[in-house]
Amino acid sequence: MKRRVIIIVCAVLCVMPLSGLLAQGGMWLPMLLEKNQKDMQSKGCKISAKDIYDANNASIKDAVMLFGSGCTGEFVSGEGLVFTNHHCGYGQIVAHSTVEHDYLTNGFAAYSKQEELPCPGLTVTLLQYMKDVTAEVLKGVSKNISEKQRESIVEQNIKDIVDKVTKGTNLSAYVKPIYYGNQYILYVNKIYKDVRLVAAPPSNIGKFGGDTDNWMWPRHTGDFSVFRVYADSNNEPAEYSKDNKPYTPKKFLKISLKDKQEGDFTFVMGYPGTTKQFLTSYAVEDIQNIEDPARIKLRTEILNIYKAAQEESPAKRLRYASEVASIANGWKKWQGEVKGLKFLNAVERKRQQEVGNPLMPQFKQVYDANRKYKMENLYIGEAVLSSDMMINARRLLRLIDLSKDNSISEEVLSNQAKSLAKSLQEYYDNDFTSHRSVDSLVFVRTMKIFYDDFAKDNYVFLRDRMNKISAQDYFAMVYKKTILNNPEKIVKVLNNYKRKDYKELVNDVAIELLSPIMGQYINETSKHLRENNAKLDSLYRIYTADYLAKFNSSRKSEDVSMNDGVFPDANLTLRVTYGNIAPFKPKDGVTYRHYTTIAGIMGKEDPNVYDYVVEQKLKDIYYNNDMAPYGDRVAFIATNHTTGGNSGSPVMDAEGNLIGLNFDRNWEGTMSDILYDKDLCRNITLDIRYCLLIIDKYLGAKNLIDELEIIK
Ligand code: ARG
Ligand code: ASP
Fold first, then answer.
1. pLDDT in tens, 299-335
2. Residue 384, Cβ neighbours under 10 Å: how many?
């Protein structure tokens, strides 16, 4: 019986077309979208590729922006009004919240432009155009040169290209490789710096379901916030000024309130961060069996500590809310990723695809050699630098290292020390007396795991210290005795700092622990990582080029579309992905409908569970049936291939009208960054009608509704 199954699996894999072994899905370059047009239209799209991306005329791309440094936003009015996610605007909402004006808890709306709140540091980036510059970037690169030479030629050529397009302008530009350096694309942008907060729902709406529902469907999160971009009198980027005017976008999105059905075409334009569809079986195996599990194990410990602290009081719940949200986000995603990779048999599928490829032994060799360094890097990020104490110790270590350099003057050292003293003082003033017990637990538990799972076998200096004392006791001792656990003393030392003081500080127990770890990392590990990654880059460049060549020759000549699965991996540049609204089957016997409604919010309500508190006002709106013309839909799912960075992206219908804001994926589909599967992977979209319902009926911001162009 078993053997038969294996034979069947092999038969399926062996006849599978080349494209089927790579991820399906696709995040397409807007400038090449014409290649997808036929496919898009066959799936229901009613507009042309040029309506979406046109370098010379206003197109949908002019309505879409990189919001901050890792999210997407879109213009929804002629006066620079922007929609994005609540979790993308979260930092700004928190920054403007005080005890008197708790916008995070209560929500916020500006009822006139004067009430909009400036957000220093927040930028939006608007793409002007993109261009294939492969020939210019590779000028002077030949087959016979070393990888190092190639790197330096490419770097210089890129610099020249960027200088040429930006010199004497207010443009900024960068060139990014695609297909591991087989092609290079130039992106020319304008960066707007005066961005103001306009509205946000209360967090019981914007974060409804919290980390419990994160990465899950069915979902009921009202994950939106509203901003406005301002410009100078010529509509150009400018620093914040009260004289700035709302930016007039070349294009803004109209909003459709029409009902959406299963099967309807949708597309998403935005800034997906990273996908890794070309990874070899060795890399996927490491991720699935070593890297993700190590990360999950460490974060489970940290989360348990923070969550226990949160149970102590509502104040502590708030205190750790944003740490928990960000730690839990990756933690939960990686669990889904491991499950999904196993379910899809990703490693085996990759292996099948690699059979006979002469590059594989080289890949294996580099991955084997690099594993230790990769893990060291992972442990330093996830364990060694997971406690505030060690982060502060690293800053202190930098001061010590500077002090050893005699070319640095006493004055510079003293200024550096004073600024460290100031920021430490702020940290201690915050809530150090109560936070220290939590932080010390994080330190001891993560260091213990790091020691047992990695350091014991790799750091002789640490193992030697554990002769007379257990690792647990050693780390507990370090936390207790370090000068960083003595606010008065360390602040005093730093405020009166002289070069010679470093000789005292190097003997501190935390520095004694951290210094050799960082020393090894900087002097050894990072070098190996750089070298091995360069080797991998060049291997992947050949591997991908081969793959693309085979793929192209296996296609019929009339099939010029790129829509069979060989898109360039996401790299935080503007992309288009498309699909259809669709339910999905998480397991045998269960089908999840493609949309959710406010009834589901009321169903989840639990006044005793923070994630499920429902605001009275929302209940009134719902039970009084005061939802016209928006209705009761909350969210929907579709087969668009998205990833981190797509949050806030406009989800559009066949005509290019805005129907929702992308904000997440389903848990069962989070392996889509490595291997997409159209049956399992769904993007989760906030229905635009729920967003408008909250702006209109909950926040009462009719002024904003009036700005929008709504198609009923
Ligand atoms: N999972 C979504 C994304 O990766 C949302 C994250 C924010 N929400 C949260 N509950 N932590 O960004
Ligand atoms: N929630 C993610 C983001 O913030 C989107 C995703 O990973 O699907 O970009």
1. 999 999 999 999 999 889 889 988 999 999 999 999 9
2. 24
DSSP 581: B
Q: Are 93 and 239 in contact (CB under 8 A)?
A: no
Find where tokens 């087959």 sit.
143
DSSP 268: E
Residue 644 CA to ligand 2 center (angstroms) comes to 4
**What tokens appear for 77 in the block?**
């009015």
Q: What is the model's pTM?
A: 0.94
Half-sphere exposure of 126 (CA within 13 A, CB side): 31
CA of 326, nearest ligand number: 1
Q: Does residue 325's CB lie within 6 angstroms of at least one atom of ligand 1?
A: yes
Residue 284 CA to residue 304 CA, distance in Å, equals 28
Annotated catalytic residue, options 59, 77, 87, 564: 87
- For 536-572, what is each residue's pLDDT tens digit? 999 999 999 998 888 877 766 544 444 455 899 999 9
Catalytic residue among 223, 286, 508, 673: 223
Peptide bond into 629 cis (omega under 30): yes
- Closest by CA to 259, choosing from 638, 687, 698, 682, is 687
Any atom of ligand 2 within 6 Å of the Cβ of 643? yes
Distances (CA, A) of 708 to 523, 629, 658, 698, 699: 56, 14, 11, 17, 16
DSSP readout, 217-242?
SS------EEEEEEE-TTS------T
Instruction: Find the 678 Cα to ligand 1 centroid distance in Å.
Output: 22
Q: Check: CB of residue 642 under 8 Å from CB of residue 268.
A: yes
User: Contact 44/652 with Cβ under 8 angstroms?
Assistant: no
Is 281 considered catalytic here? no
The one-character DSSP state at 453 is: I
**Tokens 């009834």 appear where?**
599
CA of 414 to the centre of ligand 1 (A): 41
Quote the Cα angle for 672-372-182, to 5°: 50
**What's the confidence (pLDDT) of residue 17?**
41
